[in-house]
Structure formats: structure tokens, C-alpha cells
Amino acid sequence: MSAPVLTKEAPEPVEEPVLRKPATRKRLVPYWLLLPGIVWLLVFFALPLVYQASTSVQTGSLEAGFEVTWHFPTYWEALQEYWPQFVRSLLYAGTATVLCLLLGYPLAYLIAFRAGRWRNLLLVLVIAPFFTSFLIRTLAWKTILADDSLVVDALNALHVLDVTSWLGWTEGDRVLATPMAVVCGLTYNFLPFMILPLYTSLERIDGRLHEAAQDLYASPATTFRKVTFPLSMPGVVSGTLLTFIPASGDYVNSELLGSTDTKMVGNVIQSQFLRVLDYPTAAALSFILMAIVLVMVTVYIRRAGTEDLV
Amino acid sequence: MEQYEPDSLSAAQLAAIRRSMTSGRGALSRRSMLRAGGVGALTVGGLASLSACGIPPAKREGQGAASTDDSAKEKTVAFSNWTEYMDVSEDEKSRPTLEAFEKRTGIKVKYTEDINDNVEFFGKIKPQLAAGQDTGRDLICVTDWLAARMIRLGWVQKLDPSNLPHAYTNLSAQFRNPDWDPGRAHSYPWTGISTVIAYNVKATGGKKVDSVTQLLDDPSLKGRVGFLTEMRDTVGMTLLDLGKDPGSFTDADFDAAIGRLQKGVDKKQIRRFTGNDYTSDLDKGDMAACLAWAGDVIQLQADNPDIRYSIPAAGYITSTDNLLVPAQSRHRTNAEKLIDHYYELPVAAQLAAYINYVCPVDGVKDELTKIDPELADNTLILPDKAMAKKSRAFRSLTGAEETAYEEKFAKLIGA
């Protein structure tokens, strides 16, 4: 460490009061730097969370007011009433995450290793959709997947929709207002959140490792399985988390691209809060969703962090 | 770059990966779990401290209590309205009827288009109104059921009829006595909204669609029928179709209407329940037929000749968007002058010609003919007697009814 040495040799009178206890000051600096962030989190995250927790155990009505009665059955009732929407949310978000990974990995790989001078342009293209509003992008999918659009006509001509209808993903010869449309929307909207972390971790891999693998007679597939993929695991994990967590709470895609039987838990929370004015149920639903996602993520990280890596 | 060392590298790399998993950003180490536990404990502590306070009753005592009125001193009025609900000059730079008002009265209008959705807007202004604070808005425009709720909660100022001479004289008889605001003591309609059936002839194969029964049962429309997420429109139209009066129905009638709609959902006749976004579905033909708001239909027809509408023989629902002065607003008199301005016949005609919704002002026909004779003959803007006879309003609901009905309706639409 050079800093303490420097202070000993520089007893300049002007800066004396500050420099007298450099150790204390140094120790405090990180906390001062953290202060804005901590205050921000306290005011805009912790406080609302506490407030919401309190709301979830209240009973009452808009007119009579709500009082904290520690009415925990709200949680059980909410879960009992809306478990299909919970299951659906997790299923759609999970499917969208897997699709994002399948679509995003090759693209991130291409950008990291094969794009050459096109790399920056491709990265900009990945981020480009963010220049348009989320809502507009989702509405655009209504045109892409419209009943007589090219995409749907082509899928019909190839009899793909017969299969998906049989699986219950689509309805008759249309895609809009079906589960498939919602999952497509989710996949599209969250794809960049998958590609970017994948790219960062793939880009860090030393190209000489691939050469070394070849030198050791590993086939390209083996190289990928033994070298590239394990090294990209941090990207895979953060990418899947960044996709799955927001996707499971999303309600825009389901609202615009879905139908009555594709409503996700986000839609229920929105409707309970704004339409039915049942604030406790809405708050309880949010907490249940948070708890479920937290448990799933914990289990996932535990697994990904141990078995897949060693 | 470090030297490449095949022996040690794989272990080091693996260690690095493991480290990034266990102590990197994606990590969930024992320490972070402990920390989370700490936050949890904090939460519980906070909860305990918050347990004393709930959400206070929304109802304010002293209904319609006027706050101080600074209208004479401050010549301004802040008007919050829906998007595309005001006439705009051809270069889209000014709003002629508002400008005329400013010129004549010297009152500056701060016009904001910040209402997109009734329930969202209610969520936005609720905290301030419930706490008895000024929302910063002197005049707002909300749909009748929300106006009814706000009046019920005592969040609206009573209007002074002496400042509303034109409004008092020219308001259509049809809108004079809603059960939620008898004699229009607190509100004046901005527009009337007719809920009708719209269809795309190209998508129906030339077939006419003119009843809710047909929407719910015609197999040729399967999967291409839309209803509205606005409960009173969808349930109201279904009640009419069942031969019930939306102005005086019972719980059982409501349940019957929900049951009827549920069948349509179950057999996949209904594609989806929509807000304003049905217009693009109908335009493209993804929806062959749906419930629609008449003003939208006129605008859609201007661009797409395939869009038709019909008035069901069983009747149709008319609701209103209403101007209210929120409690604690300090410019009530200015707001009243603005309301009255829009009840003067030439101004009302100018507005109606632009926004194409039902004009709530009597005797506007001659003025509208001067602007556009075709619009003056359009019964969706100026309903004739035959049409007005079929118009029904959805009755106002008590707080408890509202919650119970909205819950049943929410279940119907899937959330």
C-alpha cells in the first residue's frame, strides 16, 4: 500500500486536519459513496416493501378505509383463487427464458468470436429495440402475428399451426390471442437481457483456450461442451435470471397479445389493485410471486453454481 | 496477458467461475442470505411499526366542501382531459375553442392530456384526494361511474348554477338527471358515449351483425368477437340482450349476464376483452365484430369503408364523460366559466365536429350543419328520436356492489 506512506511524508499544514486520521477517513469513504444508493434503496425499495407487507394483512374497503388486522388468510385465499395464473406465469416465463437462451446463445457466440469488425454494429442492433417504447414494440407484434399476416399464412401453409393447436398453444388457424403469442412477445421483449450478459462472458474467454483444446484433439463439439459453455456459465446464469424474473411479473404481453385464458399473475395484481380495489389481495399476490421467484432462483443458483460447474 | 499455463489454468479458471458463482454478482452466499435475513428482520420491525396505521377511509366529510376560491385573483384553470378529446387547428398548433375562451375571459387554460384510463387516473389522484389535498387540477373529465364514485366519496365540489347559464339551458334532457348526480349539482357531461356493435364486413363475409346474441352464438364469428374491459358496457349490453334494464337490474340479473358471457368465453367464441385497442383489431379484421364506442366507429369509418355499425334492437348503453371540479381546487369559478363556454352552441358544434362523440348540448344541429351537414345527420353524434328511445344508462352502484361486480367481471375476463 502506498497511500499511508505518502501521508507520512507529506505533513502539509493546509490539508492537515483531513489527513491526520487517514485510516478512519479511508474506512468511511466507501460508506459515503454508498450513502446515496442506500438512501435511494431505503426510500424507494425498502419502505414500499414494508408498506406493501402491511397492506397485505389489512382488511376493509375503499370507503371505510383499511386497517391492519393481521389477516393472513388473504395469502391463502389469493393463492387458492389464482394458482392457475401463477402456474401460467412461471410456465410462460420459463418457456420464454429457454427460447431466449436457444436464440440468444448462438447470436452472442457469433458476436463474441466471429463478428470481427461487425461486432459493434451487431451489438448496437441488439440494443436498438430499446430506443422504442416497450408498448409500441409489443403492439408491433399484433401486426406481425395478425390473422392474415404473412407469418401466420406461412405457418398455416406448413401445417405448423395444426400441431401447435393440437398442443393447445394456438387456437384454430390463428396465433394472436393464444399462449404462443404471449410467449413469443415475452421472448422478443426480453431477448436483449439474455444476449448482453452472454456476450460479456463469452467475449472474456481467451481464444487460445480453443486452440489448446484443438491441440488436445478435442472436436469442436467437445471444445464447446468442455471449454466454452462452462466458461460462459456466469453469463447463462445472469442472462436467465434477467429474463425470467421480469418475464414472470410481466402483464403487458398477456394483455395485448393474449386472451382470457392467458392472463398472468401480473394481470391479476393490476386488476385487483386498480379495478376491484382489493389492495390487500393485490399486495398478497405480489408477495407470493416474490417468494416463489426467490425460492426458484435460489434453487437454480445453487444447482448452477455447483453441479453444472464442477 | 498472463502466460498460458495448461496445468494450472483449468483449475484457476474453474476457481474463478466458482468464485463468480458464489461471491460474484449472481451469488447467493451464506453471508448474503444472512444479510437478506437482516432485511427480513428489518421488514418485520417496520411492519410492527406500521401495524398501527392502515389506509384511512377515503370518504371526506362535509361533502363537496368548497375550498377557498381564488378565481378572481388568479386567472387560470388547469384542465385535465383524455387524449384526442379537444379540437385542434389544422396546423395542429392551437386549440381553437380553448383559445376563444382564453381570449374572451382572459383566463389562461393549462390544458393537459393526462387521462388515458379511468382506473389508472383514479389510482393517480386518489392519494391526494383521500388526504384532502389539492391535486393541482381544477377541472377533470372522467367517465360517469368514476364521477359517481368521486361524488360519493365527497371528492368533488358543488357547482354554482349562476355561473353556468348556457349549460343549464342547453344540456340535453337525456343527461339531466343521472341517478348518481340528480340535477347535475356536481358535474356536466363533456360528451356522451354510445356503446354499439361494430363489424368489419370484409371479415364477416358481408354479413350484418346486430345483436349481442349473434356476437355470442353465431358460429361464423367464432374466435373473432370482442367485448370491452369496461364492465358497464359489456354487462350492460348483455343485460339489454337478456331483456333486462341496466338501469334497474338485480344481483341475479347481473349473474345471469356474467354466466351468458362466460359461455361465450368457454366455447372460445370471444377472442378477447379489450380497451381502446379493439380499433386496430377491427380495422385489420382480426376481430370480425365487437362492442365499440360510437366515436371510434366514425373515426374508423373515415379510413376504412368496411367498418359498419349497428344499434341492437334490444337497445344500447349510453354513458357520459363528465367534467368535475375536484375538492380543494382553488379555481372553481374559472372552471365553471370554462364548462359554460362549451355549452354555447357554436362552441359545442365546433367541438362535436372534431371529436365525433355524442354531443350533450341541445339545439346544436343548425350550428353543426354549418360546419359539416353530413356530420349533423349522423345519429351517432346527434341521436334522433328513434335512436334516443333505445338508449339506456347503467345504474349507479354502491361501493359494496361495485367491488362485488368488478370482482366477478375480473374473473370473467381472466384476471
Radius of gyration of chain B: 27 Å
Mind telling me the CATH class of the domain at 193-318 and 399-412 in chain B?
Alpha Beta
N-end to C-end Cα span of chain B: 56 Å
Beta-strand percentage of chain B?
Answer: 15-25%
Instruction: State the shape of chain A.
Output: globular
Number of helices of chain A: 15
State the distance separating the first and last CA atoms of chain A.
36 Å
Number of strands of chain B: 10
The proportion of residues forming helix of chain A, as a percent range, comes to over 70%
Which architecture name of chain A does CATH use? Orthogonal Bundle
Question: Could you estimate the helical fraction of the residues of chain B in percent?
Answer: 40-55%
Q: How big is the Rg of chain A?
A: 26 Å
Largest sheet, spatial ordering of strands of chain A: 1-2
Plain-language structure description:
The complex is a heterodimer of chains A (310) and B (415). Chain A is mostly helical and 310 residues long. Chain A has one domain (82-306): MetI-like (MetI-like fold), CATH 1.10.3720.10. Helix content of chain A is 75%, strand content 3%. Chain A has helices at residues 3-9, 16-19, 22-56, 73-114, 119-127, 134-144, 150-157, 160-167, 179-203, 207-215, 220-231, 233-249, 252-257, 265-275, 279-306, and strands at residues 58-61, 65-68. In chain A, helix 4 packs across helix 15 (279-306). Chain A is globular and about 75 Å long. Chain B has 415 residues and is an alpha/beta fold. Among the domains of chain B are: 76-186 and 325-343, 3-Layer(aba) Sandwich (D-Maltodextrin-Binding Protein, domain 2), CATH 3.40.190.10; 193-318 and 399-412, 3-Layer(aba) Sandwich (D-Maltodextrin-Binding Protein, domain 2), CATH 3.40.190. Chain B contains 18 helices and ten strands. Chain B has helices at residues 6-22, 30-50, 96-105, 118-130, 144-152, 165-170, 201-204, 212-217, 231-241, 251-266, 278-284, 294-303, 332-341, 345-355, 365-371, 373-376, 385-390, 399-412, and strands at 76-82, 108-115, 139-143, 187-200, 225-228, 270-274, 289-293, 307-310, 316-324, 391-392. In chain B, strands 1, 2, 3, 4, 5, 6, 7, 8, 9 and 10 form a ten-stranded mixed beta sheet that branches. In chain B, helix 3 links the parallel strand 1 (76-82) and strand 2 (108-115). In chain B, helix 9 (231-241) crosses helix 10 and helix 14 crosses helix 15. The longest helix of chain B has 21 residues, at 30-50. Chain B is globular. Chain B starts with 5 loop residues before the first helix and ends with a helix. Chains A and B meet through helix 3, strand 1, strand 2, helix 6 and helix 10 of A and helix 1, helix 2, helix 4, strand 6 and helix 11 of B.
